[in-house]
Every structure is written in C-alpha cells, then in structure tokens.
Design a protein that fits this description.
2 domains; globular
Length: 274
C-alpha cells in the first residue's frame, strides 16, 4: 500500500483558528500574515487553488525582499500543506527543506511554534516517500510538545495522526494503528467532527492492510463512523468540503463507491456556492 494513500492531517484539515503561527524576530516592515491567511481561506473555500498558489508564491517573494523572516516561515509552512494538496512533490520537498533550515536558523527547534512547522514538514515528507526522515522530525516535535503542552492539548491529536501516517508509510501498521487510536481518543473530546472522520478513515485503511479475521468488520465499523461524523457535522463550509474531498478517494478504494460519490458531490455543491 502506498504511503500517499493514507490520510494524514494537514493545515487544510484543521480549523484555521487552531494553526500555530511561528513567532520570531520581526523585520522593520512585515507582511500582514493574518490578512494573507484570510485571503487564502477565501480562495480555498472556492477551491481556487491556482490563485492560492500565486498568492503564496508572490507573498514569499515579498517576505524575502523585506527581510521578514517570520512571514517567510509562515508562508513556507502554508506552502508545505498546499503542495500536499496539489500533488507537486518537488515543490513540497523544496518548501520543507527551506522551512526546516529556517527553523534552525531562527533557533526555534525547541519552541512550540517551530515544532509546529516541523510537524507540517514531516507530514509532507512522509506523504512524498521520505517516511524515515519524517519519523525523526515527528519524534522531535513530540519531545517539544511534551515539554511545553498539556497532554490533553488538541495539538497532540494532529501529531499522533501524522505519526500514524508516517509509520503506515514504513509498513509498521500496528504502530500506526496505535497512534491513530491515540488521536481518536483526544479528538473525541473536541467538537471537530471532520478530524474525527479523517481519523476513522485512517483506521479503516490500516485495518484493510491487516490479515485478521475481523478485518472487514473493522473496516466497515470505521468507514461507517467516518460517514456518520461527516453527515452529522453542522459545518457546510470550505473546511468541511475539503474533508469530504479528502476522504472520498479512500472510501472509493475500499469499495464504498456510493458514499465516496456522495461526499464528492457535497464538496462540489459547497465549493460552487462559495
């Protein structure tokens, strides 16, 4: 099974309010990152990916021209997630390398903000065939989070989900399952039904990889749970549409063709309204 088949979380799979922006020394003049993120959200809500890419690339050039290292790091982190979505492996790896280097230059490797950028880089590297390097970064993030955050902090759920994806890419499905289950336990304490759904889809695909008597039963249990979470969510915005779009291909591969088609059609409807 290909590592790219697994559904790791990313910046586009989370409420935008939950994204941890890096805080680093500022240039004399800085980009307005909150306004930039708002414009990105508007473009993503309408699935205008070409425009979003242009905005990110132009803003990255501007941040570098201004010497705004904080803005540069924020944009590189956004580009990592964007290119996981676009499928451009070369551009994704480039953003990861530059972001990892900048975290080091700014001495943010032991800060939660820097670790969050490294988490995004690790998730991207795992998605594009470099799971061994990704696991090392995940472990670094885990140490930083453990030293600075409450064990029940929401950010651990994203870490565990992505570590599950990394281990799945390495073929260690038992360890992957354990991390997905840990993520699910934390996410059940939140109201983010979209991320709960993604985690159930992750688990369904992991169980499909096992040779065990209850494989089909477990796959169906987690697929059914994912669909119930998405159908029961009160959200019908770009974030919900993206999650539907993200889950649909895996449901299709697992044989849930009608549900996959229904989720894709729901995403189409939401994006068309935006």
């Amino acid at each position: 099974m290909r590592e790219s088949d697994f559904l790791g979380n990313c910046g586009y799979c989370k409420s935008r309010e939950a994204v941890d922006r890096p805080t680093v020394p500022h240039a004399a003049k800085r980009l307005d990152i909150p306004t930039l993120i708002g414009e990105l959200d508007r473009l993503f809500a309408a699935e205008r990916l070409t425009d979003a890419q242009s905005l990110l690339e132009t803003s990255l050039e501007e941040a570098r021209a201004l010497g705004d290292r904080s803005g540069e790091l924020s944009i590189l982190s956004e580009l990592m997630g964007f290119h996981r979505r676009s499928g451009d492996a070369e551009a994704a790896r480039k953003a990861c390398r530059e972001g990892i280097d900048l975290v080091g230059e700014l001495k943010l490797g032991s800060a939660v903000s820097g670790a969050t950028v490294l988490l995004n880089a690790a998730t991207t590297l795992a998605a594009y065939g470099e799971p061994a390097e990704a696991i090392g970064l995940f472990e670094q993030v885990s140490r930083v989070y453990s030293a600075n955050l409450d064990p029940q902090d929401y950010r651990f759920a994203g870490l565990y989900n992505n570590m599950g994806t990394g281990y799945a890419a390495l073929g260690d499905f038992e360890r992957s399952r354990a991390y997905y289950l840990a993520a699910l336990k934390l996410l059940r304490e939140t109201d983010n039904r979209e991320e709960v759904a993604v985690t159930h889809v992750n688990l369904a695909q992991i169980y499909d990889s096992f040779e065990r008597e209850d494989r089909d039963e477990q796959v169906d249990l987690h697929v059914s749970a994912a669909i119930a979470e998405l159908d029961g969510s009160p959200r019908r915005d770009g974030y919900h549409a993206f999650t539907c779009r993200k889950c649909a291909p895996t449901l299709d591969r697992l044989g849930y063709f009608f549900d996959a088609k229904r989720l894709d059609e729901r995403a189409d409807d939401i994006y068309a309204r935006n």
